[in-house]
Amino acid sequence: MSFSTIPAEIRLQIYSELLVRSEPIVFIADYGRVNRMMRREASPLLYSSNCFRFPAIYPDWPEETTAHIAFLDQIGSQARLIRRISMALLALGYPPTASNEFDEADIEQLEADVKALELIRDACTGIQTFELLLPGWGIALNCSANAKEALTILDTRLKSFPSLQEITVNLDLAADEHLNDDVLETMHRYGWIVKLRELPKRRLYPRR
């Protein structure tokens, strides 16, 4: 008996056991040497049932910045099958400067994050859930007007995703840190679901 003669519902159960993960997974596009039937049957399950973790964007590291582009180019039209994405947006994760204001690096990072979101939006038209990963030493300690403006800009881009239903924020905070009330209120006003995780106490060295 060959695999293709097994009933379709059993083949789908096998695909599910092999391809569906409970934790976010990093890019998978190459199935190896599989036949056309298996690729056709497995693709919807792989891309629609998993959460894909996209790498953070580093403007100074082009190889990191283009990783998500290469992945989306490789899977082509199958990107529309993706339902959940997890990604760190570093514009909301930079340590605050001594003056607690955005500097040139912050602005460059924000522009890079916005560009990445627009690319994902145009390719992954079926996204329903976007999970933001934020280190607590960034915006959690920064209540400047610029930081809240960055939240507004990113929320506008995320809300432009045609099928998006939920925005979740996973925020790591040390035991001696707290989420600024204004920032938390802004996130809730935008409808973001905020999940806090407490980490051991750490020492913060602001950027100059």
Entry summary:
With 208 residues, the protein is α/β, with parallel strands linked by helices. The protein has helices at 8-19, 36-49, 62-65, 67-75, 104-123, 145-159, 181-189, and strands at 51-54, 84-88, 129-135, 166-174, 193-199. The protein has a five-stranded parallel sheet, with helices on one face.
Distance between the termini: 68 Å
Please summarize the sheet with the most strands: 5 strands, parallel
Bin the helical content: 25-40%
Specify Rg, calculated over alpha carbons.
Answer: 20 Å
Secondary structure class reads alpha/beta
Shape descriptor reads elongated
Low-pLDDT stretches are none
Question: What sequence of helices (H) and strands (E) makes up the elements?
Answer: HHEHHEHEHEHE
| Quaternary structure type | single chain
- Beta content comes to 15-25%
Give the tally of β-strands. Answer: 5
Give the neighbour order of strands across the main sheet: 1-2-3-4-5
How many alpha or pi helices?
7
Mean pLDDT, to the nearest integer, reads 78
